[in-house]
């Protein structure tokens, strides 16, 4: 009995002890679970995420870049990218072979990547829709797709050196894309890929992102198109090494067009040589030659050292300065100051510079902005080369006065001419009108620097003298149909570092000018590097100025200011005087017409801009020529069933203006076919 009681007590004690132990263990486990789940929740969740979730960074959505009237110049589009989870791939050999075939990749290199026991590898980023469809059709395990953003330049080479380009990760690498990368670039998107215990993907999510700001540029795509076309043709015709052309609004400093030849397609920038990607307009220095005489004359007029009609001795076209002989292109004996500029006399200009003096000339060189960056919104702008006066030699004042011993950029020279056109006020050249948020709110607006560098009276007199250069002097091939023009030619010998002398065979031919003279709307600079066989600015650059100016003034709807003739359309004109053989056709080729008409593919909200653009393209198909007397009547053709190019050429040929709406084939027209109208009448043609 006693033993039984002892046994029961022992059992109870042990049960109590066991219960206590179990309770303690439960409390310990529960406490630990509570600690892990509450106190260490974030830590363990992060570790689980690292094991189960893969994070993929996807390129941001960059803002759109527009021209001044809303035409898209650069935009981002969604595009598929392909990645692999190698541990999911069942047949690496087959996967590598098939993917390499479709995506045009190296099979061995791809096989090596897919064989790595990694959780993520890129197969190919930003593939075409056709490639993505073909890969999906394979149904390969471990091959996945994600949506990225790709930068697209819908107009190809148009304004390539202004726009620049963005790289694979949608980061700006050149041009405006680089300079405004912070504003344009949006936020990166994140793709989360979830895996099970065996590493197999079971879920994928992509977080939406905010896109970057949009840019509105000062460029006019219509003017840019014509500038590039004329510059490309000029470089080809003159066999020049390269060429630059710039169009400025002198009142606002807005750059309406900036072109370089050779050029490149920013959609495939990696394939273009560095030579083609270089923005010569702001980075390449050259001695401007006689165009720089505008600074010498400006200083002399402003300082009261020169009167336009006073006589300057020509000295037979030869002057000796500090032991150096400088000659004119032909002998002159007595010239007025106007004629010195009109005939581009080096001897006369040097005598004027000696009156001004080195210190004063240097001060005006600085006033005009030489030797300092203009501040245009492009990377890599050069300052130019302007030596301080203390380092000038006794011959420097004469050499610099005629555009030697000084290095300038094309944009600096254009801005200097613009200051004269703008009544003596220098305005900072710029390319960005506004930065806008996605909802259209203006975040930042252009505020270019302005400074007066000449009195209005001096600028007006100099502008009149420059008009004489075009009317009677070396720039006669720059004369416009229906518009007055002013400007200055330049023919600069290039310095040969091997001989340490100026070359007798290599020149930079240039022309800088503006139009119309009384109320300038455009300033244009054209420079051709090493043209041949003709090489003077008046022969090879002035005619390019003419064609660009006429197209630009038409595009801007500037009314003619010349009453002696009425500007009408033409498709052929004679430029034998500039060295071409006979008549040269100016009709658009089919490819050029297609390229031009891409700019009319605007959204419905921009239909007015589209119609105006089509009209401008029709007007600018060819240079105009004056027709005196009463305008003849012409019969309106039947345009029905014809394409835009054919209608454009017919209107240009008979002198009708054209407004286009729609695309495809002509279905309606006004006036009706067969109607007799005055040449210059506007025809409206609807295409479907």
Describe this structure in words.
- The chain is an alpha+beta fold.
- It has four domains: 38 residues; 153 residues, Penicillin-binding protein 2a (Domain 2) (Alpha-Beta Complex), CATH 3.90.1310; 342 residues, 3-Layer(aba) Sandwich (Beta-lactamase), CATH 3.40.710; 98 residues, Trypsin Inhibitor V, Chain A (2-Layer Sandwich).
- It has 22 helices and 32 strands.
- A hairpin with a 5-residue loop joins strand 18 and strand 19.
- Helix 12 packs across helix 14 and helix 12 crosses helix 15.
| Poorly predicted tracts of residues | 564-631
Work out the radius of gyration: 35 Å
- The helix-and-strand class reads alpha+beta
Return the domain count.
Answer: 4
CATH topology type of the largest domain? Beta-lactamase
Topology:
Layout: H1 2-39, H2 41-52, E1 53-58, E2 65-66, E3 72-84, H3 92-103, H4 107-115, E4 121-124, H5 129-138, E5 143-152, H6 160-163, E6 165-166, E7 172-174, H7 175-179, H8 181-184, E8 189-195, E9 201-206, E10 214-217, H9 221-238, E11 242-248, E12 255-261, H10 274-277, H11 280-283, H12 293-302, E13 311-313, E14 318-321, E15 324-327, E16 334-336, H13 337-342, H14 346-356, H15 358-367, H16 396-401, H17 410-421, E17 425-427, E18 432-436, E19 442-445, E20 450-452, H18 456-472, E21 486-496, E22 501-515, E23 522-529, H19 537-555, E24 566-568, E25 572-574, E26 583-585, H20 590-597, H21 607-619, E27 625-627, E28 633-635, H22 644-654, E29 657-662, E30 666-670, E31 676-678, E32 682-687
Parallel strand pairs: 2-10, 29-32
Antiparallel strand pairs: 1-8, 2-3, 3-4, 3-5, 6-7, 8-9, 10-18, 11-12, 11-23, 13-16, 14-15, 17-20, 18-19, 21-22, 22-23, 24-27, 25-26, 28-31, 30-32
Helix pairs in contact: 3-4, 3-5, 9-19, 12-14, 12-15, 12-18
């Amino acid at each position: 009995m006693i033993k039984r009681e002892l046994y029961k007590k022992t059992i109870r004690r042990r049960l109590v002890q066991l219960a206590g132990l179990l309770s303690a263990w439960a409390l310990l486990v529960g406490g630990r679970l509570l600690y892990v789940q509450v106190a260490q929740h974030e830590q363990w969740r992060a570790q689980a995420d690292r094991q189960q979730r893969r994070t993929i960074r996807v390129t941001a959505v960059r803002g759109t870049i527009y021209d001044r009237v809303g035409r898209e110049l650069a935009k981002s589009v969604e595009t598929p990218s392909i990645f692999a989870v190698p541990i999911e791939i069942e047949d690496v050999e087959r996967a590598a072979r098939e993917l390499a075939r479709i995506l045009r990749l190296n099979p061995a290199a791809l096989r090596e990547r897919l064989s790595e026991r990694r959780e993520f590898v890129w197969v190919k980023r930003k593939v075409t829709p056709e490639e993505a469809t073909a890969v999906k059709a394979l149904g390969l395990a471990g091959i996945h797709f994600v949506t990225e953003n790709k930068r697209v330049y819908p107009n190809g080479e148009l304004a390539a050196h202004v726009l620049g380009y963005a790289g694979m990760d949608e980061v700006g690498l050149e041009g405006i894309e680089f300079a405004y990368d912070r504003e344009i670039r949006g936020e990166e998107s994140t793709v989360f890929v979830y895996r099970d215990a065996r590493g197999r993907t079971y879920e994928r999510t992509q977080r939406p992102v905010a896109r970057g700001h949009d840019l509105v540029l000062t460029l006019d795509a219509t003017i840019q198109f014509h500038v590039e076309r004329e510059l490309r043709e000029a470089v080809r015709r003159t066999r020049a090494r390269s060429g630059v052309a710039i169009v400025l609004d002198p009142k606002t400093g807005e750059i309406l067009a900036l072109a370089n030849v050779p050029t490149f397609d920013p959609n495939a920038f990696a394939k273009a040589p560095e030579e083609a990607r270089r923005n010569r307009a702001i980075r390449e220095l050259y001695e401007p030659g006689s165009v720089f005489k505008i600074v010498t004359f400006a200083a002399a007029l402003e300082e009261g050292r020169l009167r336009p009609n006073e006589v300057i001795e020509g000295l037979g076209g030869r002057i000796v300065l500090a032991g150096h002989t400088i000659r004119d292109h032909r002998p002159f004996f007595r010239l007025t100051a106007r004629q010195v500029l009109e005939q581009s006399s080096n001897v006369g200009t040097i005598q004027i510079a000696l009156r001004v003096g080195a210190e004063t000339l240097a001060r005006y060189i600085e006033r005009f902005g030489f030797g300092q960056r203009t501040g245009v919104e492009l990377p890599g702008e050069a300052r130019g080369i302007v030596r301080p006066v203390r380092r000038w030699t006794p011959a420097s004042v004469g050499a610099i006065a005629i555009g030697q011993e000084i290095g300038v950029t094309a944009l600096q020279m254009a801005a200097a001419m613009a200051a004269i056109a703008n009544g003596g006020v220098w305005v900072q050249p710029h390319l960005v009108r506004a930065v806008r948020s996605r909802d259209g709110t203006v975040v930042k607006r252009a505020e270019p620097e302005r400074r007066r560098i000449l009195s209005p009276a001096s600028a007006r007199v100099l502008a009149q003298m420059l008009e004489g250069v075009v009317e009677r002097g070396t720039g006669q091939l720059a004369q416009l149909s229906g518009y007055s023009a002013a400007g200055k030619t330049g023919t600069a010998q290039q310095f040969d570092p091997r001989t340490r002398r100026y070359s007798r065979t290599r020149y930079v031919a240039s022309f800088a000018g503006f139009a119309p003279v009384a109320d300038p709307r455009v300033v244009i600079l054209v420079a051709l590097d090493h043209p041949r066989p003709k090489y003077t600015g008046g022969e090879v650059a002035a005619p390019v100025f003419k064609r660009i100016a006429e197209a630009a003034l038409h595009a801007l709807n500037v009314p003619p200011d010349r009453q002696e003739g009425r500007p009408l359309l033409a498709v052929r004109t004679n430029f034998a005087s500039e060295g071409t053989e006979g008549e040269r056709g100016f009709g658009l080729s089919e490819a050029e017409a297609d390229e031009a008409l891409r700019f009319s593919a605007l959204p419905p909200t921009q239909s007015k801009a589209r119609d105006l653009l089509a009209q401008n393209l029709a007007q600018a198909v060819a240079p105009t020529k004056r027709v005196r007397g009463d305008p003849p009547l012409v019969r309106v053709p039947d345009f029905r069933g014809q394409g835009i190019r054919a209608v454009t050429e017919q209107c240009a040929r008979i002198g009708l203006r054209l407004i286009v709406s729609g695309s495809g084939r002509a279905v309606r027209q006004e006036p009706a076919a067969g109607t007799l109208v005055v040449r210059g009448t506007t025809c409206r043609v609807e295409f479907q």
